[in-house]
Each structure stands twice: as structure tokens, then as C-alpha cells.
Design goal:
It is a single chain. By secondary structure, the protein is α+β, with helices and mostly antiparallel strands. It is built from nine helices and 21 strands. 31% of the residues lie in helices and 26% in strands. Strands 11, 14, 17, 18, 19, 20 and 21 form a seven-stranded mixed β-sheet that branches. A four-stranded antiparallel β-sheet has the order 1-8-6-3, with no helix packed on it. Strands 5-4-2-7 form a four-stranded antiparallel β-sheet, covered by helices on one side. The radius of gyration is 27 Å and the shape is globular. The termini are far apart.
Length: 407
């Protein structure tokens, strides 16, 4: 019986996605673990792989929006692989003597790409990463062999083609005063999620400010030793994650969520850290933040930033957060009201550090100040609890000794 390929659950607040591209066509034989298609949601793009080998039959088109659990393809494992696959004996050849291996490699180098024989590792890597079809690329190497330059040129040409398609979707007005451009499926999903958050929660924001002097001094004092020991810089985000964990412990209701007519109280601390990318905002999750050291937190954050920029975040990186921190200050934001990340009940907004005059022991001094904003679901959290939470964060930042420092 053919196995159904369904859209997997990709997060508590995500109900649908878009099949952006099929890597295999209907009728193709696929092996277990091979990428079938790329699923785009408002949070991440991820490749869905085959759970078993067989012949693929697609049921959804590229660009089609699909719901979680919807069947988009079937894989018939009763059909054998194509005949040409039977001649593939390369795994056994790896065990042959070195001299024989060299002879095999020489034979493979002479094989033209249309035979299906492997190409060089460098070319193979480009083909796999760019999802190219080698049989459609003209080889310029000896005896028609594909070279690295051929693969790179094909990838660039496809990129230009995609840009041309996108350009055709841009419609300038008759007088040239504006242009009309269709929103990408990902952007449309982000827009829908933001509207949903505003319509389903009673969002209220409370503000405070904190003096960053103590944290800045501690970072400057510890930076060299910390970086040398952990191969990562001591940033601000780890302090705020630790401060939020302390505040969540003091005001547990902020670490919960509403589910139907029930309130779910989370007793763990998986903190989402909003990361801006060219494709939009994503929120990878720092797991069990209460048990991690400052170094562990900074390594997690740095790793997520790299994966987000390269588009390599996985679905599991984004699932199950209990609270979110967003730092608009890196873009110069002085003050804003962050929107909740459903189904969470709270989100902390960090902002730009600005020298401002403040009263210190009866005297006016210029101090590095940051505005803090806590948006929360007023259905679950009262104003007193929200203010108490934010004051606790402020106290921990202004006096880092209240945090479990381990460096």
C-alpha cells in the first residue's frame, strides 16, 4: 500500500505552509532520506524527506498553500528501482585496494554526465546544495564532463531566471508613480500570523528603563578571558535571557499560555530569541535556558544566527518556546511595542542603548540607558504581574550579581 506523505507539524502556532519547490517529480523513484520538497512557513523553510524508498506521485503543485496534516504525495514502495540503479556498485568499491580505487576514479572521470555516473565531489556538492539537474547542464570538460564552473554557471543562470520571473510580477503604474508587486507566500504568512496574534489576544504593553552601566562594565572586564576560554564573545542577550528566567521564576504566570478554556503553566524555560533575516523574522528556541551557562547561551545564539542567515534552521529549532525576547536595538530602535509570538503570553522588547541624563544620588549624570517593553496577554496576566516581571528584569540587569554568574 502506498505511503502517504503528509505536511508535518512545524510549530504550535503554524497551521499551514507553502510547497515552494519539488526536488523530485511525479513518477521519479526516490530513496529513503532523499529530499522531496521544500516547505515554507512564516518561520522557516525546511526540506521534507522521504521516509521510505519507492515511486513518488505528487498531489500538490509548487507554490500551493497546504495545511498541516494534508497529503501532498504518495510513495509506492511496491515498485522496484529503475534498471540503471542495478549497476551501481560504488559502496563496495570503497573497500578495494588503493590502486583499484584510482582506476575506478579514472573511469568515473571519463563518464559523461548523461550516463548518471558520479561527478567530482566539488561538483556534486554544488548540485546538491543548489538542487540542480545535472542531465540538463552542458558539460565543458573532457568528453563532456561537468566541471565546477559548469555547475556554478547553472546555479547563477537559475538565479537570474528566478529574478526575471519575479521582475515580471512587478507591475508599474501607468504614470510610473508606484509599482505593484505580489507578496511572497512567506510574507503573506507572516502578515496573517501578525494579524491573528492581534485578533486573538488582549495585547497590552508596559514599559520601563534600565541602567546598562553595570553590565557594560562587567562585559568589558570579563570579555577577553571569556572569549579566549569559550571562543565566543560575551554579549548582552545572555544577560537578558538569564534575567528573564529569574523573572519568570518570580512571576510564573508569564511563562504560561491559554489553550481553549484552560491555562497551561509551563515549568520549563525555553526562551525564543528573535533573529532578523532577509526572508523575515524567525524565532529559534534556546532550550532549558535556566540550566545553561553564559557560554552555552552565547554559543546557542551565535549558532542560530549563522543558521538563520544561511537558511539552515530546522523545524525543531523553532518549536515549543515559552517566552520570547526581541532586540530591536540592533537596528537602532529606541522604543517599540513587540507583538506576541502565539501561543506565548509574553515577549520582551530590548532597545538601543542611549546615554541619557538620570538622577543618581541626587545628582544628574549621563548613563547608558535602555528602554524595555513587555507585551503580554492581558487575558492571562494582570498588570501587577506584568509590571513585577519587568521590574525584576530591570533589577537583574542593573545588578548582575543577582544573576547566576559563572564566568
Amino acid at each position: 500500500m502506498p505511503m502517504e506523505v503528509k505536511i508535518p507539524a512545524v510549530g504550535e502556532s503554524i497551521t499551514s505552509g507553502v510547497v515552494s519547490v519539488w526536488h523530485k517529480k511525479s513518477g521519479d523513484f526516490v530513496n529513503e532520506g532523499e529530499a522531496l520538497f521544500t516547505l515554507e512557513t512564516d518561520k522557516v523553510s525546511t526540506e521534507i524527506v522521504a521516509e521510505k524508498a519507492g515511486v513518488l506521485e505528487t498531489k500538490a503543485d509548487e507554490g500551493q498553500e497546504v495545511k498541516i496534516g494534508e497529503i501532498v504525495a504518495t510513495i509506492d514502495d511496491s515498485k522496484p528501482p529503475p534498471e540503471e540503479k542495478k549497476t551501481e556498485k560504488r559502496p563496495e568499491k570503497k573497500k578495494e585496494p588503493e590502486a583499484e580505487k584510482q582506476r575506478v576514479e579514472e573511469r568515473e572521470k571519463k563518464a559523461p554526465p548523461e550516463t548518471g555516473e558520479p561527478v567530482s565531489p566539488a561538483v556534486r556538492r554544488i548540485i546538491e546544495e543548489e538542487h540542480l539537474e545535472p542531465e540538463k547542464i552542458s558539460g565543458t570538460g573532457k568528453e563532456g564532463r561537468l566541471t565546477k564552473g559548469d555547475a556554478l554557471a547553472a546555479a547563477q543562470e537559475r538565479g537570474r531566471t528566478e529574478e526575471q520571473v519575479e521582475a515580471r510580477e512587478v507591475q508599474p503604474s501607468a504614470d510610473g508613480r508606484f509599482t505593484r508587486k505580489r507578496m511572497s507566500p512567506l510574507r503573506r504568512k507572516i502578515a496573517a500570523q501578525l494579524v491573528m496574534a492581534q485578533q486573538t489576544a488582549a495585547i497590552l504593553t508596559t514599559f520601563n528603563e534600565c541602567d546598562m552601566s553595570a553590565v557594560q562594565e562587567l562585559r568589558a572586564k570579563s570579555q577577553e578571558k571569556f572569549t579566549k576560554k569559550n571562543s565566543v564573545k560575551l554579549g548582552l542577550m545572555s544577560f537578558f535571557i538569564k534575567a528573564c528566567v529569574e523573572a519568570l521564576k518570580a512571576v510564573p504566570v508569564v511563562n504560561g499560555r491559554i489553550e481553549g478554556e484552560d491555562f497551561i503553566q509551563n515549568n520549563f524555560y525555553d526562551i525564543g530569541v528573535a533573529v532578523g533575516t532577509e526572508r523575515g523574522l524567525v524565532v529559534p528556541i534556546v532550550r532549558d535556558a535556566d540550566t545553561k551557562s553564559f557560554a552555552d547561551l552565547e554559543l546557542d545564539i551565535a549558532g542560530f544566527a549563522v543558521k538563520a542567515r544561511e537558511g539552515k534552521l530546522k523545524i525543531e529549532d523553532l518549536q515549543g518556546g515559552t517566552f520570547t525576547i526581541s532586540n530591536g536595538g540592533v537596528y537602532g530602535s529606541l522604543l517599540s511595542t513587540p507583538i506576541l509570538n502565539p501561543p506565548q503570553s509574553g515577549i520582551l522588547g530590548m532597545h538601543k542603548i542611549m546615554p541619557r541624563p538620570v538622577a543618581v544620588d541626587g545628582k544628574v549624570e549621563a548613563r547608558p540607558m535602555m528602554y524595555l517593553a513587555l507585551s503580554y496577554d492581558h487575558r492571562a496576566i494582570d498588570g501587577k504581574e506584568a509590571v513585577t516581571f519587568l521590574v525584576k528584569v530591570k533589577e537583574c540587569i542593573e545588578d548582575p550579581k543577582k544573576l547566576p554568574l559563572d564566568f
